Amino acid sequence: MESTGLLDRAERVLEHHWGYAHLRYQQRRVVLAALSGRDCLALLPTGGGKSICFQLPAVVRGGLTLVVSPLISLMQDQVGALSAKGVPAAYLSSTQNPETRRAVRERTLAGRLTLLYVAPERLPGMIRESRLACGLLAVDEAHCISEWGHEFRPHYRDLGKHRQALGAPPTLAVTATATPATRADIVRVLGLEHPVRVVASFDRPNLHFAVERCADERERLYRALALITPIAGTTIVYVPTRNRADGVAAWLRRKGLAAAPYHGDLPGPARRALLGRFLDGSIRVMAATNAFGMGIDKPDVRLVVHTGIPARPESYYQEAGRAGRDGAPSRCVLLWTERDLTLTASLAGGPGAAAGLETMHTYVRTRGCRRQVLLQYLGEDEVRCSGCDRCDAGLLGRSWRHMIGKRTP
Questions:
Q1: For residue 398, which of 226, 208, 204, 203 has the smallest C-alpha distance?
Q2: Which of 199, 225, 259 delimits the end of a domain?
Q3: Do 119 and 187 share a domain, yes or no?
Q4: Cα–Cα distance, 58 to 100 (Å, whole number)
Q5: Please, what is the Cα angle at 152 between 34 and 211, to 5 degrees?
Q6: CA spacing 20 to 30 A to 31: which of 136, 139, 154, 239?
């Protein structure tokens, strides 16, 4: 009865602030854990509504929820969306001037914030300088905690001791992709006590996976062009280096496409401007390194092309998963050459690197189901393919010829 009452109240708040009448099944489990004061590890796929899982309990519980987030852009987007809904939220980052940071701290200490977003690097200073009364700790993109994960951030590794300094509040760790080893590491590092574990299927049935072997870079460029040209929506082309991002974007522009590069060498204002143009559709193709990563919330990306082999399946699956966030049919295509096998092996490192590398080599060479290779690596045993170039199964698989047109030689 108590659980039903908590969820009923949560869904009334959900409808008031977010406009949704009901939570999804897995969201209900996570929200109930947070409202009941339980630690929780939640793995929900891209587009599965992870942010609601800590934002909604924050509003229902009241007090302060502290959100650890890895990217300034991600914090800005979520704080902006919450503020527009009337939820008191703010973030602290190195990009703010001292006056703004001081104002955020004053609002926090005065109890006028429901959610405060901080990067892990800023958390120790916040704890030292402020008397934080944190009712709920949320760790977004929690795979960054683990050295077994694909986007390890060393400062995330200290979150366990920072959690203790905050008085070990109920903690919710959320992410979209994590192997069983990464999940175990998250629980251990954070010191979660008998956490509720919510692990949804990682499968994205609307995504079609394909791999094409190319003889050289020239062929790879022309294959990418042939894939992009018929697609009505936007495209992300992932490249291994910053120079390649610049070169591929320039080549695509010469072919008449509205393309731009995105990488870590660009100044912050330039990156933000490019992201804005991509989100509003004025940039049709973004040629990007993996700096174009977490927090890219554009629902109608129809094609993600990788021009190389990522070293880890988690990285590939998360990057490819930026296609089709709206649930509509979308393509994920990896274009590779024999040289990529050697290059990827030279760049791979860290725990689990060998297994991840072997899986990616299997993925590009397999005569079996591509989706099965990826999902079994992520810990799913029963995989039913809804579309890959090896299976081309079901209605989704049969729809590609109509959606994309004939293959260009």
A1: 208
A2: 199
A3: yes
A4: 23
A5: 105
A6: 154
Task: Report d(CA 7, CA 123) in Å as an integer.
Answer: 31
The number of C-alpha atoms within 13 Å of 93 and in the hemisphere containing its C-beta is: 16
**Max Cα distance, the chain (Å):** 65
Q: Which residue, 143, 170, 199, sits at the end of a domain? A: 199
137: containing domain: 2-199
Same domain, 214 and 260: yes
Q: How far is it, in rounded angstroms, from Cα 376 to Cα 179?
A: 9
Going by C-alpha positions, the residue among 169, 112, 110 that lies closest to residue 139 is 169
Please indicate, yes or no, whether residues 183 and 229 belong to a single structural domain of this protein.
no
- Which ranges of 321-352 does DSSP label H, i.e. alpha helix? 338-347
Which two structure tokens, joined as six digits, stand for 336? 């590779």
- Strands 330-336 vs 301-307: parallel, antiparallel or unpaired: parallel
31 and 178 fall within a common domain? yes
**What would the DSSP string read from start to end of 97-147?**
-HHHHHHHHHHHHTT--SEEEE-TTTHHHHHHHS---EEEEEETTGGGG-T
Residuewise pLDDT in 10s, the chain (409 residues): 367 788 999 999 999 999 999 999 999 999 999 999 999 999 998 777 899 999 999 999 999 999 999 888 788 889 999 999 999 999 998 888 999 999 998 999 889 999 999 999 888 888 876 677 899 999 999 999 987 777 788 889 999 999 999 999 999 999 988 889 999 999 999 999 999 999 988 899 999 999 999 999 999 999 999 999 998 889 999 999 999 999 999 999 999 999 999 998 888 889 889 988 999 999 999 999 987 876 677 889 999 999 999 988 988 998 999 999 889 999 999 999 999 988 776 666 666 678 888 999 999 999 999 999 999 999 888 888 989 999 984 434 444 444 443 333 2
The residue ranges of DSSP E strands in 30-132, in sequence order, are 40-43, 64-68, 89-92, 115-118
231: three-class secondary structure by DSSP: coil
Angle at 198 between CA 196 and CA 200, to 5 degrees: 175
SS3 string, 280-322, reads CCCCCEEEECCCCCCCCCCCCEEEEEEECCCCCHHHHHHHHCC
Q: What is the CA radius of gyration of the chain?
A: 22
Q: Are 315 and 149 in contact (CB under 8 A)?
A: no
354 found inside a domain: yes
Residue partners of 153: CB distance under 8 A and separation at least 6: 70, 120, 144, 145
For residue 168, give the CATH number of its domain.
3.40.50.300
| Encoded tokens for 311 | 């070293």
